[in-house]
Predict the structure.
Amino acid sequence: MDMVAEVRAFNRFYTEVIGVLQAGLLNTPYSLTEARVLFELGTRDAAEASVLRDLLDLDPGYLSRILTRFEADGLIFRERSSEDGRRQVVRLTDAGAQAYGMLDDRSATEVRAMLAALTDEGRRRLVASMTTIRSLLDADDRREPYVIRPPRPGDLGWVVHRHGVVYSQEYGWGTGFEALVARILADYADSHDPRREAGWIAEVDGVPAGCVFCMRKDDETAQLRLLLVEPSARGMGVGRRLVEECLAFARHARYRRIMLWTRENLTGARRIYKSAGFVLAERRDGEESGEAVVDEIWTRDL
């Protein structure tokens, strides 16, 4: 099946899912277009007819017929703009607001029922896919390209896995490094104090794309650990944002300073640390997977 046929098949499927082809949307007397007009009016105090036409990409004559019907049903009233008498301003009446509220409630109920049939992972995949479609097709979609959230069940395993894969691919580090990450996270999962230790996962389009942890070094010192950004998410500011989250938590937890361990060849991470106010405090020779490395300790006051 070619791409055009795939898109058309999806369109037919989804219009059936949301009931667009029924005589009345959501078992109401309104068509999809009429419901969209009510929605736009219900989410603002008033709207000029020309603004509605542009927002919904409607033929002026078609919109005029919809508004005439709404006016006859007592759902709206129209008046001339006080700024320009040639423009028409449309507002919902109390009856119109009730009609909008009914549509909004029924729509939310149907969506909740659809989501309830899915697992948590299925819901995340669905919303992520919808976000991807919207970002690809809507040039005006300017939502934040990523979100920062606390770890969920399964995320610690993802952190271990991606550290193993990414550092093997980019630096040739072996299973010894992956085992170190696993031990760090096993200790964290077993005994961390949520008042003084925390972790964060960055998501891009609903998929994990980065991580960082703030862990206790001693009573006065926090340690930033396990900063990772997926190659596909680099250049978006994810690493900088994760470090900022870690620093803010460390301050709130009343640490006086924070430190981290990194390596000389991790140039991208070192740039982030330097821009966040860390300074190089110590260098020493080390070894990783049989290769010589230079270990570094960076610190900063909070």
